[in-house]
Design a protein that fits this description.
It is a single chain. This protein is mostly helical. The protein has one domain: 2-Layer Sandwich (Creatine Kinase, Chain A, domain 2). The chain has helices at about 1-5, 10-15, 30-35, 50-65, 100-120, 130-145, 160-180, 180-195, 195-205, 210-225, and strands at about 20, 25, 45, 75, 80, 85-90, 150, 155-160. The strands form 4 sheets. It has a two-stranded antiparallel sheet. A two-stranded parallel sheet has the order 3-4. The chain has a two-stranded antiparallel sheet with strand order 5-6. A hairpin with a 4-residue loop joins strand 5 (about 80) and strand 6 (about 85-90). It is globular, with a radius of gyration of 18 Å.
């Protein structure tokens, strides 16, 4: 499940990207947080492991070597949680509105439900090449919704905006079963209005300061409404 979900890291990151600034300057990235976080030795992309047994051996090695004392110190972008029996998608930046958070939750829920159904039917989930996963994460972190992501080993690319729209359409029947159609399809609004990184830059482009950016984020959180971004 974790290996298969890595194909969708750029979708989640592009939709949630909200950290263009670092130490008072525009980094040129849509998500500086995701790149800063990769500096930690147990953070970033998950290793492609062959199954639960290999995951347990890997964690046992880290604990025996005193690299970590608990799985809570492994901050992969996607991580299984043995205590809860869940898969955690940790790739997202912080989103200022509850509606955006609900959309990310609906997208993850629908994806996991669909993949779990395929497993139950005897299908083997596709696992993307690790170099494609790494490149696509970088593209989403750098360009956000303007990224073009690699979709096959021949190097064919697709705009992530288009890929998100297609994915949401594909998952809408699943969302109907789970009762989260409205939350899932709010992704279309997020694509049209722009994620938080674009809305933050719009404030500065209009002559505002980073204090004004913070004020805008507070207002979005308070009202649960996204401010308009630059077209």
């Amino acid at each position: 499940m974790v290996n298969a979900l890595t194909s969708y890291i750029p979708h989640f990151l592009a939709l949630s990207a909200s950290s263009p600034y670092w130490q008072g300057r525009d980094t040129g990235l849509a998500s500086a947080r995701s790149k800063v976080f990769e500096g930690l030795p147990t953070a970033g992309l998950p290793f492609q492991l062959n199954g639960w047994a290999e995951f347990e051996r890997f964690m046992g090695t880290l604990i025996s070597a005193k690299t970590i004392s608990t799985i809570r110190e492994v901050w992969w972008d996607i991580r299984p949680h043995p205590n809860f029996g869940t898969v955690e998608l940790r790739i997202c930046d912080g989103m200022p509105t509850l509606a955006e958070v609900a959309t990310a939750a609906a997208l993850s829920q629908c994806l996991v439900h669909r993949l779990d159904t395929l497993i139950d039917r005897g299908y083997r989930l596709p696992v993307p090449r690790s170099w494609i996963v790494r490149e696509n994460k970088w593209r989403a972190a750098r360009y956000g919704l303007d990224a073009e992501i690699i979709v096959d080993e021949q190097g064919r690319v697709q705009p992530v905006r288009e890929s998100i729209r297609e994915l949401v359409d594909e998952l809408t029947p699943v969302a109907g079963t789970l009762g989260c159609v409205e939350e899932l399809r709010n992704a279309f609004t997020m694509v049209e209005r722009g994620p938080s990184y674009l809305r933050q830059r719009a404030v500065v482009a209009a002559g505002g300061s980073l204090v004004d950016v913070v004020d805008m984020l507070v207002e979005e959180l308070r009202t649960d409404r996204m401010a308009p971004a630059l077209s």
